[in-house]
Design goal:
Layout: E1 4-7, E2 13-17, H1 34-37, H2 45-48, E3 58-62, H3 95-102, H4 125-154, E4 157-165, E5 184-187, H5 196-208, E6 213-215, H6 223-228, E7 235-243, H7 258-274
Length: 281
């Protein structure tokens, strides 16, 4: 199976879903139950946005699972405790970034959200490097290409990094264990990856529809918005987290009746963004 789907669009809007992959590679060799591991997925997010390509939206989707390789982490976010030999390339030293690695949520996950270990073995340097070549690099190349194409064609780009989140933060998921999440979390890394006016537009649009919306808490956005968002160059990147309680059963992964109304909400948000030029806000 191809590691990603990349559907080029004609608009200034780019959507990507890095964590909804369900194709578990045979070389994963994990030790926990598959049902447990599936809790790491942003399950069904690709279905929530499946209307977007027909509207001219650029679409990128990962098919590999997040727990195998997290495309929303930098290649420096290596959990060296997982490896059977020293990592030959640069390793992250920023304490804030390393907080996720310490929680077991680096480029390659060590633990699940409840702290349960994923592996009963160490990983070789070669297999982690292979995951980067096979998964991380093509995913990031596709996102970069889509944003470049949108920016070149329209003079600006709006990139939405599409995620879902559990209703309640687990012990090893964020720095705020036990916190109940809002319906949506909009993140722009404290205004560094998108204009505050665009972020406000998204927040207020959703609030007007009756949803609870948090801004930059507890999720500010990670590598995919950090790397590609540059509002000074009219490249705007937002991370959008959706509370899974709105559309799925978190235990069984079954789609709930609220799925279709949520999808209608997202279609409306996409329609608004397709008509928005951030340079005029």
């Amino acid at each position: 199976m191809q590691p990603i789907t990349h559907l080029p669009g004609s608009s200034a809007l780019v959507l990507d879903s890095p964590h909804s992959g369900t194709a578990y590679p045979p070389d994963f060799l994990y030790a926990c139950a598959t049902a447990t591991l599936r809790g790491a997925e942003d399950t069904h997010v690709e279905k929530l946005y499946d209307f977007a390509p027909a509207l001219g939206v650029h679409w990128i989707e990962a098919h590999f699972p997040r727990s195998y390789l997290d495309a929303n982490r930098n290649t420096t976010e290596i959990d060296v405790s997982l490896l059977d030999a020293p990592w030959p390339d640069p390793v992250e030293t920023d304490p804030k970034v390393l907080s996720k690695v310490r929680l077991g949520k680096g480029l390659v996950w060590r633990t699940m959200d409840d702290g349960a270990p994923i592996y009963a073995r160490t990983l070789s340097v070669a297999e982690v490097q292979a995951r980067i070549e096979r998964c991380w690099k093509p995913y990031h190349a596709a996102v970069a290409q889509a944003i470049d194409a949108a920016r070149q064609a329209h003079g600006y780009s709006i990139h939405i990094n599409c995620h879902s989140m559990p209703a309640m933060a687990s012990s090893h998921a964020t720095d705020f264990p036990g916190e109940a999440h809002a319906d949506f979390v909009v993140g722009d890394r404290d205004g560094s990856t998108a204009s505050s006016a665009l972020s406000s537009l998204v927040c207020e649009h959703l609030r007007t529809l009756g949803y609870s919306v948090a801004y930059n808490h507890p999720y500010k956005g990670v590598e995919l918005v950090r790397r590609y968002g540059n509002p000074a160059q009219h490249r705007h990147s937002l991370q959008l987290e959706i509370n899974r309680k709105l559309y799925m059963n978190e235990e069984t992964l079954a789609i709930l009746p609220g799925f279709e109304s949520l999808k209608t909400t997202l279609r409306g948000l996409v329609d608004v963004l397709l008509k928005t030029d951030p340079r005029t806000l």
